[in-house]
Design goal:
The structure is a homodimer of 505-residue chains. With 505 residues, chain A is mainly alpha-helical. The first copy, chain A, has helices at 3-36, 43-61, 64-75, 83-100, 104-127, 130-151, 157-165, 171-194, 210-223, 261-278, 295-310, 313-326, 328-331, 336-343, 360-375, 384-396, 422-441, 445-450, 455-464, 474-482, 488-502, and strands at residues 231-235, 241-245, 248-253. Chain A has a domain at 1-100. In chain A, α5 runs antiparallel to α6 (130-151) and α10 packs across α11. The termini of chain A are far apart.
């Protein structure tokens, strides 16, 4: 096939991908609307509207013309295309195959079970009855294994499930990393627990008017680079980053008048996600090449701003005055060291989403080990509560008072999302590894943070990560940016040094 | 064909109509989002997203399976179906034919010209250069005549254009009605102008904090029956009633701190539209039978609440105290008669959207006469400014200082919407005729309004108009509800009596 004809075909593929991306943007906006501003009585109809749109999106994804265009492009010479164009072609192929390789019946059964599973899980959690959720969970695992055989027949079924969230990541890489983390973090947490130092967090509870919290969140998200001409910030039950396009990025938070810090760190976290979206490669915004790479890379961006920057000593230094001005009643007289220690307090607890950066990985490792063993059938669903509680005691020294606060706490499994949890801790490790490299590239970074100059940090992330889109695998991106593969040592020494200092270990 | 098979086919048609309706609801929500909360830099991409969705909607509308189902249903015996089912079938047929009878090339040319026409018009208006808009207008008329030949070959082209907005309405009915209005209103306005009475409106200008205006609008819209569990109120540049479903009705208004009354009446007007949407027939909300009947009937509902109720003496009586409490600085000491006269002040002006209820119909009649004569070629586009100014002087005794404030003031023609304007005054006449009947059905209506009991009024409109959906033609609905055809006498005597009293004529 001549090059002109190949280019024409590529353009046809681009048109189809762009159409699908635009309709996907519509879906994302409808989702945001549902979570943020939809009147409550509209819920029933909204699911029908979104189902109709999901049907259209599915039809567009399995369009046989896409398949035939991809086949013909691969029959030709891909060297006719730029790196960016090749990426679009490969991404289109991956997506098309994932959408078409699974039998329709299995897709439907999974969709129905995920949907009903959510209700079953919510009720079981509310009533503290794991046994009511167990049969659904068993069935979901069976279906997700079947799904894996169709989607990635060459992979172990659990690896296939991980691949959806962190492409290329395998148990053989992950298990030793997580074992290392465990080996280092369990004693660290134990030492922190035994330390006589117990940071005061009393001043973080008080009366913090919500309008002032909102204004503060807007100032800080703007300071670190969120562009409000290309985005919004609103309120939802669970904070998230959504919106339909890099020019329309919508972050949310939630407010409680008795505390400002959780809400503020949710803003910083979601701003990190938002900056990734707003920083996408120009000129290809409706094409796969510019899309965020993986869940873990996305999480690395939110955690970068939340932990590497927001929980940084110099960040506290820069904003302490603003906190005092905004909430004088609670913050007057609070020292920088007190603030820094309070927002970095390490406190083992039952609930993952409330965990601090030291204990969080152990919540994840526990779930990873359980998922892995559920998939290889070395444990069975009925034993999960015991296994869960045993591991909680072993890793964090706490034991959940109920299954609702233990094995039933997370929504993920009820929707069939296995292999998702590792992304959180991979994201934390990536963030730390990126930060280590950034320290070499921006040698006065502490000074920049102390002075509130975040633009060099944002630019570094834009240039190194955001604009790279999907041009590289996560592994290659990490190597390209940091010169190293994923290496838990960065994360471990960061935690040891930081918490060693805070807790005088 | 047996009845079971016919029922199956009907169900297939219903499934397709519901899918299309749901996707239409998505489009409406996207439109609302665009007008109300979208970040400004998202505009360019949003048009692409909406164009992609419009493409999907078009494909669904011209789906040949819909055509074939309709054909087969008509080959069978429609007596197998209830009145509601028959209505859905007829509506589906009308919509399908309108979508499929027009050649694709003409649709595209119209879409492109309407889109570019808007820019051309906006620039011409800004620069007061009618001659820059004239060629576009000429071309739009030619295309809309062509369109009429395909859409309704049996109708006069202008009648065909009217039919899109007010089905069944023809010039032969409209011209004598508008002539009667003209004959009666021109002398009435003249008498008002010569009256020594000149209502004070000074107190309506002042400082009205926007949060108080918003709270007031919410109270009153709620009082008259807007259900905030199934709707919202927000701010947009131009007030409108949108939203994606009867369970998700979104009205908007705009605020200026120097005046509260325009914003409040916009709220009441849009609430009238919103009550129509929220009041739709239960059980068929995604099917054509429950949809609002026509533009003019929709406008009759907004104008009913704005004029028949909101500008009513007893409405002023009920809310004067609340106005005083809300805005004591401006409203303290204002008497009921002063308030009533001020909100009903008649004042001929150049601009249609600012016109009061007495002068408004003449703005419409002027446009109707011009459109009619453009279509039958008894006038030509180049002469429009002169014709416009001459008629303004003749009908309202005022002459616009510029074409921007004259022939270029309205957006409608730039989008090819000819035959739309009559709906406004038809709506006003319908509202008045409905009100006359309501006075007979609810004999203590003034007392109810004075006491702020609007539920009997809302129920009457729900039962008589909203729930009727598309079961009847506008003509038949009017006859069914009021026992009369459209009769301008109701409107004329209402205006003569009301303004005769206010201006002591």
């Amino acid at each position: 096939m001549n090059s002109k004809k190949l280019k024409d075909m590529y353009q046809q593929l681009v048109n189809k991908l762009e159409e699908r991306s635009r309709l996907g943007g519509v879906m994302a906006t409808m989702h945001w609307d549902q979570e943020v501003i939809m009147p409550k009585a509209a819920a029933e109809n909204r699911s029908k509207q979104m189902a109709a749109l999901a049907g259209v999106l599915h039809d567009k994804s399995v369009d046989v013309e896409i398949g035939s265009l991809i086949d013909k492009l691969f029959e030709g010479d891909l060297n006719n295309f730029t790196e960016i164009e090749q990426c679009n072609i490969y991404e289109a192929k991956r997506e098309y195959e994932l959408e078409t390789k699974i039998p329709k019946q299995l897709i439907q059964e999974l969709a129905e079970l995920s949907s009903s599973g959510h209700q079953v899980w919510a009720k079981a959690r509310q009533e503290n009855k794991f046994e009511d959720f167990a049969p659904t969970l068993e069935r979901l695992i069976i279906l997700k294994k079947k799904w894996a055989e169709f989607a990635f027949p060459e992979l172990d079924p659990y690896d296939a499930n991980i691949d959806i969230f962190e492409r290329g990541m395998r148990m053989e890489c992950l298990t030793p990393i997580f074992d290392t983390l465990k080996k280092e973090l369990i004693p660290l947490i134990d030492a922190i627990r035994k330390s006589p130092i117990n940071p005061d967090i009393g001043f973080l509870r008080g009366n913090f008017p919500i309008d002032k919290q909102e204004a503060l969140g807007r100032i800080i998200s703007k300071d670190i680079g969120f562009d409000y001409d290309r985005g919004r910030m609103d309120v939802s039950v669970h904070p998230f980053c959504g919106g339909g396009h890099p020019t329309d990025v919508r972050i949310t938070t939630r407010y409680r008048s008795e505390s400002f810090i959780d809400s503020l760190f949710a803003v910083i976290h979601e701003t990190g996600h938002g900056l990734y979206e707003q920083g996408r490669m120009l000129g290809f915004m409706d094409l796969p090449v510019s899309e965020p790479l993986t869940m873990a890379i996305h999480e690395s961006q939110s955690l970068f701003w939340e932990r590497m920057i927001g929980q940084n000593f110099y960040f506290c230094d820069h904003y302490l005055n603003l906190f005092v001005e905004t909430f004088p009643e609670s913050m007057q007289g609070v020292s920088l060291d007190t603030l820094y220690a309070a927002i970095n307090r390490c406190d083992p607890s039952f609930i993952r989403v409330e965990a601090d950066e030291v204990t969080y990985p152990l919540h994840i490792i526990l779930r990873y080990e359980i998922e892995k063993e559920l998939f290889d059938e070395s444990i069975s669903v009925k034993d999960l509560p015991d296994i869960w509680n045993y591991k909680m005691e072993e890793y964090l020294g706490v034991s959940p008072p109920s299954n609702s606060e233990g094995v039933l706490q997370d929504v993920h499994w009820s929707g069939g999302a296995f292999g998702y949890f590792p992304s959180y801790t991979l994201g934390a490790m990536y963030a730390c590894q990126f930060y280590s490299k950034m320290l070499l590239d921006i040698n006065d970074i502490s000074k920049q943070i102390k002075e509130g100059n975040f633009s060099c940090i944002k630019k570094w992330l834009n240039d190194n990560i955001h604009k790279a889109g999907r041009l590289y695998s996560p592994e290659n991106l990490l190597y390209k940016v940091t010169g190293d593969s994923i290496n838990p040592d960065f994360f471990i020494s960061y935690l040891k040094q930081k918490y060693g200092q805070i807790y005088s270990l």
